[in-house]
Amino acid sequence: MGKEEENSNLSLLLVKLVQGLSVEWDFSKEEEQGCEEIEAGKQYAPLGKKLLVNNVTAEDLGLYACTARLTHSGRQFMIRNYIAVSSSSTLIVDCNITDTKGNTNLRCWRVNNTLVDDYYRDSRRIQEGIEINVSQRNHIFYTVNITFFEVKMEDYGRLFTCHAGVSVAYIMLKLPAPDFRAYLIGGLMAFLLLLVSVLCIYNSFKVDLVLWYRGTFYTAQAPDDGKLYDAYVLYPKSPRESQGQDVDTLVLKILPEVLENQCGYKLFIFGRDEFPGQAVANIIDENVKLCRRLIVLMTPESSNFGFLKTMSEEQIAVYNALIQDGMKVILIELGKIKDYSTMPESIQYVRQKHGAIQCKGHFTEEPQCAKTKFWKKVRYHMPPRRYHPPASVELLRRTPCTCTAGKWDAATGLIAS
Hints:
The chain is of the alpha+beta class and 417 residues long. The protein folds into 3 domains: 3-172, Sandwich (Immunoglobulin-like), CATH 2.60.40.10; 178-215; 218-416, Rossmann fold (3-Layer(aba) Sandwich), CATH 3.40.50. Helices cover 28% and strands 29% of the residues. The strands form 6 sheets. The protein has a 5-stranded parallel beta sheet, with helices on both faces. A 4-stranded antiparallel beta sheet has the order 3-2-6-7, with no helix packed on it. β2 and β3 (34-37) form a beta hairpin. α4 packs parallel to α6. The two termini are 73 Å apart. 20% of the residues are buried.
């Protein structure tokens, strides 16, 4: 008896009737707390020496006991028999027939117009059970079941008929409907897993993928946007000699070598590209409008934090970039900056929204390679196009250069050279 036997009837024949004895029958079911007597009701129907269990469920599994109290020659005897009802994978289907007394109709199960026991004589995986009858006042109630010990695909869609004279009833096994919720949940989980994997892979190799795409599919022709420069370089003028030399080396030698000579970009660097005699404010105002990016170099020196608030050059550059033109700003930190509270709100906003490229160590005048992680990060934020570098650059590419591998800063998620 298992879940497949729901809404069927179970008949337990526990003790054979002994002729000539006066017998009283009691039924009980053993539980963990003891033996509980079974009372007649909708679930259980004691009929003489039989017990009918209706609407069988998994809770009806267990050990049943039948107690018979016998009286013979003035002496009383008690006989008890047990039947264990366990779960199995068999399927039992009952055919209930109500017939008049004295009727000799044949009651049986057939398949393909052949008795079930004959049709499955070899395998015996489907068998007809023993007929059970209950005599009422004017009629007899018969139960003939059929047991499926094993169900195969060939059994689905086949008619199994229960015959009682000229009356016929049938059953047909149908394949269970697929659980679309399980497929839906599984498909959704697989899609989410794939999406997370793709996002993780993209975040890990985003810079390399974008640079490869630009180098493969973008043309060498500059866009017709009226701009003359790819980036305006804004950098602090540090009073400290060592720090000032380091920044000047980066701005005046290394940036042009990598971004201009190796990558073909065109930079405007104040102090290198302006014409003599022009007013500083006019130079900055005019040339910032001709640039596609604004590169801001930041140092960890606290004295440099206020340079954007005091110098007209930086004020004009930041104003034009962030307010008038909506220019994309590239922040490069020369060393780790712990306190940003003294920086202008506009720079704090850019730092919070887009992050910054962090560079550690000191720059030297040795040749730099544009394929290190730090320079890839800078190129990633530059305009998405490539130029044909000058012929002299081809010779430069053939000369070996010191390509110091960049490192990721775990605390900030930034790239260090």
